[in-house]
Write a structure and sequence with these properties.
Blueprint (H helix, E strand, L loop, with lengths): L12 E7 L2 E6 L2 E18 L2 E6 L10 E2 L2 E3 L6 H13 L3 E13 L3 E12 L13 E5 L12
Length: 152
């Protein structure tokens, strides 16, 4: 097992490996531990071709940018459970989570993001989107997505 203690041999290299929710990477004699943040998002389709996007609150990181709704996956939690929990907590919606639609990975200076997006639908038609944790929401077609500012 790889530890986050300094490497003992000069010039040793270890490819990034996931260790207990962290990436441990060695560049020469020094080892750096990188935090891995797991995120999930929903491509929630209400009617054919219309998807829910939400606008982040004014007080959040990346304020007022648009995103597919979702949130963080807790330690020991699977992606589907996390997505259901986050959509209920943030938007008051009960959803049925389908297949994974896409996955991406972003590297930042001190942490990495693993982001998985799932196709979803409302468990019960006619549910109202709550704005308790978001600034606004829209149901948009894929061709309209470019009109909204999303995080890079």
């Amino acid at each position: 097992m790889i530890s986050s203690a300094p490497a003992t041999s000069v010039g040793s290299t270890i490819d990034a490996e996931r260790v207990s929710g962290r990436f441990v990477t060695c560049y020469g004699p020094r080892v750096m531990s990188r935090r891995l943040i797991r995120l999930v998002g929903a491509m929630l389709e209400q009617e054919p071709g219309r998807y829910l996007i939400t606008q982040r609150s004014k007080n959040s990181s990346l304020p007022l940018l648009w995103e597919f709704p979702g949130g963080r996956v807790n330690d020991g939690e699977d992606d589907v459970t996390a997505l259901r929990r986050e959509l209920k907590k943030r938007l008051g919606l009960d959803v049925i989570v389908g297949e994974q639609a896409m996955s991406t990975h972003h590297e930042y200076p001190s942490y990495d993001i693993a982001f998985h997006v799932f196709s979803c639908r409302l468990a019960t038609p006619g549910q109202t989107v709550s704005h308790a944790k978001v600034n606004d929401h829209r149901w948009v077609g894929l061709a309209e997505m470019g009109q909204f500012q999303f995080p890079d």
